[in-house]
């Protein structure tokens, strides 16, 4: 039967749609297949990259393991060399307590290269005598692989993640290193600074640096005056080498012999030391709390660590080496009893030499300060040691501006402890007055018309008036002494020992101090200040403080004590643990290695620390007394990594730096320093203190922080 045209067309359309559906289905399937193939290819590439990462990581881990083994191997070899007795031959130098300096060149250290059994068995017999390292190098040049692919370890996903985390930790440790940066006062003490512009740092500056390293941010004495420590928590340990008897003069005269030391240290500073015979450097260094438990004892005794430091310091220690002071306090000799009106020694309020430099007092230090104050006179030709009963005198001066562009002395008043005026006079300046500053000085042109007394006359009269152990008291007394153009060793500054702002550098005016503590109104005269009134006010303030406590009138010390009392009441000993959290986190032991017996003063300090040591002995001060310098160096290399602070006290005989022996002795000392430097761990603080001698009381402080590669962190200035 024949189909109708319409039916035939419908049949063709349905067949065509079926074919198109089949064609579309095929394209979708092809697209899915293609996507699946692409995913497989991407997965394969990702897997390949992942495998390469794992192989690289495994190779890096193998290299790290080799480096660690090499370091351990070198350390073992060094210990063996140290323990082996040196053979005595015809060229052996006499053992005088130092390491011998050899002229032979040491062989270079090489990384250990692992050899595989396949490489050993397939080695060319013709090259049997060729060194293994050279054969491997030759094979690599020929296109061979030092480590075959089949020896690479395939890491699991867990091993890969663990190794990646370990590498990240190592990277952070390498980046998280401490740094020592010098401030302006530190820059001025650098040996590279010209001598006439150089101002030394003090031993107390070194104490502050070590105390910050031991205690951390809670340290009451920070080295911010001359330097800053970045990331101090990363300091691994500290090694201090004290070379008693080696002065700045000895070092500069033989600097070329300190070849290794000059490579180690970029920071070399001039150091002001105690007067020869006043005490050894180690005695002063040991004044810092040697253990966290000892620091706790000081807090319990004095209320705060800040008060303990203030009461235990000796402000006159360096002053005695700068001013002409005859006689000294013998060790163990008791000071006179307190003044009847005092509750603590008045000598504790004296400014130290460091404070006098910071506050701008005229002081006869060599260098920049010497040239600045070269025309100044001493208040006495010589002085006696100050005591707890030395008399105090209030001093105040008034000045007028002259054509020289400076303020010159026009009036001076001095009162004694009974508030009686013992000296009062007007002074005609050497230069013509341009501004009488009447609103401050009370001086007018009419008052000065009949004045004939000159500054040199005042200097003679003041020198004749004051006892040789007098303590001068005043508000910002540096301005008065500069106006008098005189220098005095014993001063108490009310702008320093009184502080009502809570900020050490923010000083209060005498008028506010008198109103706050004395309940007196001063400086209200419309005709200017009264120098007698001001000198009496300063003396009254100091006597009031002496009748109370070291914290009285000092908001900073009071806040520390108040916080400590609140913390102890709320948390018991837990706050102490928090205070020394950094000390408790690691073993904060201190070790002292001393050539010969300890001095009585140092023994007393250590005994006080040992009295509060717990039974577990974990915070004890370990003392090692040895006979020679060589034994001391060996002991330091053994124990340096076991202690937070290691102090090596070495004595240099004077005869070692006679003309014919100086260079040889300097070279030996340089070798000792290099050997001790090699014992310092990564991020370790290395400090060498060269002590004064009878010829020169100045010393040298060399400071370095060790990096993993054994080089020093270069110091950089911060601000001015």
TrEMBL record:
It comes from Drosophila madeirensis (Fruit fly). Residues 76-85, 131-140 have a biased composition (Basic and acidic residues). Belongs to the REXO1/REXO3 family. Gene3D superfamilies: Ribonuclease H-like superfamily/Ribonuclease H. The keyword Methyltransferase does not apply. It is found in: Nucleus. Its main location: nucleus. One of its GO terms (molecular function) is nucleic acid binding. Residues 103-113 have a biased composition (Basic residues). GO terms for cellular component: nucleus. This is Small RNA degrading nuclease 5. Residues 40-62, 76-152 are annotated as: Disordered. Residues 391-551 form the Exonuclease domain. SUPFAM superfamilies: Ribonuclease H-like. It holds the Pfam family RNase_T. Keywords: Exonuclease, Hydrolase, Nuclease, Nucleus. CDD domains: REX1_like. InterPro entries: REX1-like_exo (IPR034922), REXO1/3/4-like (IPR047021), Ribonucl_H (IPR013520), RNaseH-like_sf (IPR012337), RNaseH_sf (IPR036397).
């Amino acid at each position: 039967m024949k189909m109708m045209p319409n039916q035939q067309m419908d049949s063709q359309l349905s067949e065509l749609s079926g074919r198109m559906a089949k064609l579309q289905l095929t394209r979708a399937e092809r697209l899915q297949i293609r996507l699946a193939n692409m995913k497989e290819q991407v997965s394969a590439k990702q897997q390949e990259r992942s495998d390469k990462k794992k192989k690289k990581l495994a190779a890096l881990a193998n290299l790290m393991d080799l480096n660690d083994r090499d370091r351990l191997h070198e350390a073992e070899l060094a210990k063996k060399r140290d323990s082996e007795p040196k053979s005595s031959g015809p060229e052996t130098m006499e053992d005088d307590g130092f390491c011998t300096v050899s002229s032979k060149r040491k062989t270079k250290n090489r990384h250990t290269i692992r050899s595989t059994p396949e490489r050993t068995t397939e080695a060319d017999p013709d090259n049997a005598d060729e060194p293994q390292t050279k054969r491997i190098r030759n094979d690599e040049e020929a296109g061979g692989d030092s480590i075959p692919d089949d020896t690479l370890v395939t890491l699991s996903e867990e091993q890969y993640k663990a190794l990646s985390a370990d590498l990240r930790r190592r990277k952070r440790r390498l980046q998280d290193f401490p740094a020592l940066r010098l401030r302006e006062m530190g820059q001025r003490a650098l040996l590279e600074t010209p001598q006439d512009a150089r101002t030394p740092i003090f031993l107390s500056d070194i104490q502050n640096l070590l105390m910050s390293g031991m205690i951390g941010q809670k340290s009451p004495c920070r080295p911010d005056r001359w330097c800053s420590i970045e990331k101090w928590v990363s300091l691994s340990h500290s090694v201090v080498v004290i070379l008693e008897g080696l002065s700045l003069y000895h070092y500069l005269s033989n600097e070329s012999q300190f070849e290794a030391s000059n490579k180690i240290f970029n920071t070399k500073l001039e150091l002001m030391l105690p007067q020869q015979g006043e005490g050894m450097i180690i005695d002063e260094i040991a004044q810092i709390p040697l253990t966290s438990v000892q620091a706790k004892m000081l807090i319990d005794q004095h209320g705060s660590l800040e008060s303990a430091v203030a009461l235990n310091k000796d402000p006159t220690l360096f002053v005695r080496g700068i001013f002409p002071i005859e006689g000294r306090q013998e060790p163990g000799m008791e000071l006179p009893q307190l003044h009847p009106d005092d509750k603590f020694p008045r000598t504790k309020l004296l400014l130290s030499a460091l404070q006098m430099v910071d506050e701008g007092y005229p002081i006869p230090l060599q260098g920049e300060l010497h040239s600045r104050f070269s025309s100044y006179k001493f208040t006495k030709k010589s002085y006696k040691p100050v005591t707890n009963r030395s008399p105090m005198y209030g001093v105040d001066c008034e000045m007028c501006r002259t054509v020289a562009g400076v303020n010159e002395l026009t009036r001076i008043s001095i009162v004694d402890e009974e508030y009686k005026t013992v000296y009062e006079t007007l002074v005609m300046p050497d230069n013509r007055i341009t501004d009488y500053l009447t609103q401050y000085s009370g001086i007018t042109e009419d008052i000065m018309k009949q004045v004939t007394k000159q500054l040199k006359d005042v200097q003679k009269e003041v020198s004749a008036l004051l006892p040789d152990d007098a303590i001068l008291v005043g508000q910002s007394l540096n301005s008065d002494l500069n106006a008098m153009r005189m220098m005095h060793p014993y001063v108490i500054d009310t702008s320093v020992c009184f502080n009502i702002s809570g900020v050490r550098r923010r000083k209060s005016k005498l008028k506010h101090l008198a109103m706050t503590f004395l309940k007196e109104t001063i400086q209200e005269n419309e005709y200017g200040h009264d120098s007698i009134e001001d000198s009496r006010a300063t003396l009254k303030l100091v006597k009031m403080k002496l009748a109370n406590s070291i914290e009285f009138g000092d908001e900073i010390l009071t806040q520390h004590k108040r916080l400590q009392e609140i913390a102890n009441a709320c948390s018991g000993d837990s706050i102490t643990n928090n205070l020394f959290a950094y000390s408790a986190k690691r073993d904060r032991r201190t070790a002292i290695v001393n050539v010969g017996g300890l001095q009585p003063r140092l023994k007393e300090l250590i005994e006080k620390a040992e009295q509060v040591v717990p039974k577990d002995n974990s915070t004890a001060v370990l003392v090692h007394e040895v006979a020679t310098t060589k034994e001391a160096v060996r002991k330091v290399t053994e124990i340096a990594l076991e202690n937070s602070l290691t102090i090596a006290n070495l004595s240099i005989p004077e005869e070692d730096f006679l003309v014919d022996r100086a260079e040889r002795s300097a070279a030996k000392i340089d070798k000792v320093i290099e050997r001790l430097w090699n014992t310092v761990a990564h991020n370790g603080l290395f400090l060498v203190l060269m002590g004064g001698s009878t010829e020169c009381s100045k010393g040298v402080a060399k400071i370095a922080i060790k990096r993993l590669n054994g080089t020093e962190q270069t110091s950089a200035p911060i601000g001015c």
